[in-house]
Specification:
Layout (H helix, E strand, L loop, with lengths): L4 E7 L2 E10 L4 H9 L8 E12 L1 H16 L3 E5 L3 H10 L7 E2 L2 H5 L13
């Protein structure tokens, strides 16, 4: 079991949160708290870089939805980057791959060709 670590960096498009470890019922609150503490401006894009995420349960999926709702309430967008295959499969099964822009890595999510806020581009 890997403890959850969340690092934040700024990109020209907005904040990037890198999620490392296990996002589950014991750790999802950390992500929810960190995301909801962010001040997002209209037109920015919150990127959740999931490259280092080892596991995600339903509580983790809920935390991702909380992040999306927070971004949209601020007039910002959101993108998931480097989503692990097992999580991507779950997102697809429940239809969340239709509401989250999913990109291959954080560079694609913060670059000039990244989706517009609220868009739905899949890698």
């Amino acid at each position: 079991m890997s403890p959850l670590q969340i690092t934040t960096r700024s990109a020209t498009t907005g904040p990037v949160l890198a999620v490392l470890g296990e996002l589950d019922h014991t750790t999802a609150g950390q992500l929810r708290d960190q995301v909801t503490a962010l001040t997002l401006r209209p037109g920015e894009r919150l990127v959740l870089d999931l490259d280092g995420m080892e596991f995600c349960d339903s509580s983790g999926i809920t935390a991702l939805i909380v992040a999306r709702n927070h971004a949209l309430a601020a007039g910002a967008g959101i993108a998931l980057a480097a989503v692990p295959a097992h999580t991507l499969r779950v997102l697809g099964i429940v239809g969340l791959d239709q509401i989250f822009p999913i990109l291959p890595d954080s560079q694609a999510a913060t670059g000039p060709a990244a989706p517009e806020p609220g868009g739905s581009e899949h890698a």
